[in-house]
Amino acid sequence: MRDIINIAARRNPYVQLILCPAKVQGEGAAESIVQGIRMLEEQDVDVMIVGRGGGSIEDLWAFNEEIVARAIFESRVPVISAVGHETDTTIADYVADLRAPTPSAAAELAVYEYQAAENLMKEYQMRLSSAVLKKAEQNRQYLKQAALKLRLFHPRQKLLENRQYASDLELQLRSRMEEILQQKRHQFALYVEKMKGLSPLEKLNQGYAYVEDKKGRPVRQIADVKEGDAIRIYVSDGMIEAQVKGMTEEIQYHA
Hints:
6 strands, 4 domains, about 10% strand, three-stranded parallel sheet, three-stranded antiparallel sheet
């Protein structure tokens, strides 16, 4: 009994022990053990140790009695059997919820170690705090990303993006139009130069003349006019009115 008290106090100084003395051998021992079990049941304890120190088989025989076995089996409170030494075995060991090899071992099984439990609680507290902080950080990051997405998909942001896109398109269009205009100006300049080479006025500036009859028809050959016809001769700075005096089919050029 002293071992149970010492071990229980060492493992958990806050545990409350209720001792129920009983005869454990001799005449009336079985009835005394049963009475103790019933009394502890009425106390509504958390766990019950039924045991005694070592002895001969005759000394331990009370724990083989049927009434003791039935009382342990029918107990509403969990029962740890701790009868004798590790090599001793009784019927009480088989019907109990748990068998301890010695009363000291029963005390260790029945009473949790307060310091270990306190350390475990501290560990759980640290884990819980770490989990809470981790979850809070995850939620903070989620809210940060959600706020970023909200800014990105906000109508005002979309409007700014579309406005910038339209501005970029306008710049590209202006640049392209300017490029096309430059190309067209260059082509037009080439066409103008070509047209100058084909223009009658340009030919007139080079010393050539344009002749037409009185009806405005061009005179390309001598067959287009006859002697006495009025003609108009266009030169670079004006028009000359003339009359055909005669015609020669072939002109001889002199060097």
